[in-house]
Every structure is written in C-alpha cells, then in structure tokens.
Amino acid sequence: TSMGNVFNVPWTRTDRMPQTLDLLSEHGWTTAALTLSDDAITLDDLVGRDLGALAMIFGTEGAGVDPRTARQVDLRVRIPMEAGVDSLNVAAATAVAFYATRSD
Questions:
Q1: Order of strands across the sheet with 54-57?
Q2: Mind listing the pLDDT tens digit for each residue in 4-31?
Q3: Which of 56, 63, 62, 53 shows the shortest CA–CA distance to 79?
Q4: What mean pLDDT, rounded, does the chain reach?
Q5: Structural domain of 56
Q6: How many structural domains is the chain composed of?
Q7: C-beta of residue 63 within 8 angstroms of C-beta of residue 70
Q8: Residue 102 pLDDT class (50, 70, 90 cuts)
Q9: Partners of 41 in the β-ladder
Q10: d(CA 57, CA 45)
C-alpha cells in the first residue's frame, strides 16, 4: 500500500533548508531540486549520472522550490513534459522522480 512506503523511502521535511543542505553536503550527499529553472537538467540526465547518495528537494505546489534553495543545491532538475504542460502537482512530481531514480 502507499501508506506502507512511508517506511521504505527515507524522507523528511525541514524548515531549516540552508542548514539541512549544508549538512547533506558535509556528509557527501548530492542535492537536486526539482524546478523549472532555465539551467535545469532533465530527470533523464540526472538518472544517467553516478551521484551516490541523492537528496531530492521538492517545493510547494503553488510556489515551487524557494529561489534561495534552488541556488544552493548541486543540481536543478526538471521532469520532461509534453509541449504546453509546464508543471505537475508535488505528489505526481515526487512519484515520477522517485520511480526514475529507484534502485533495482
């Protein structure tokens, strides 16, 4: 069930994003924010890289990832979508990103 996956996928929520990103970096994690930034790589490009431990950052459905956070992360990533579609809700984006980056 979807409720059971909360115990299989490590996740957290933080109100201290700058400090959290610094801590992840200090421990060797690559940080990637899902965003529509012009310099964002595609999710396919992200999957093709050997990054080791990866922390994905998702923003709110209305505002997205805070611009300060987007500047602080290692990578900015976008989900490729059909022309005319420019966003997904955060649950759908999370599901797509987690599926794409799963380890088999």
A1: 41-42, 75-78, 30-34, 54-57
A2: 555 566 778 888 999 999 999 999 999 9
A3: 56
A4: 87
A5: 3-100
A6: 1
A7: no
A8: confident
A9: 77
A10: 17
Q: The tokens 């059971």 sit on which residue?
A: 4
CATH of the domain at 95: 3.40.1280.10
55 and 31 in contact (C-beta within 8 Å)?
yes
Supply the Cα-derived Rg of the chain in whole angstroms: 13
Instruction: Identify the pLDDT of residue 9.
Output: 67
**Residue 12 has which token pair?**
């957290």
Question: Residue 47 is inside which H or E element, if any?
Answer: helix 43-47
Structure tokens at 29: 């994690």
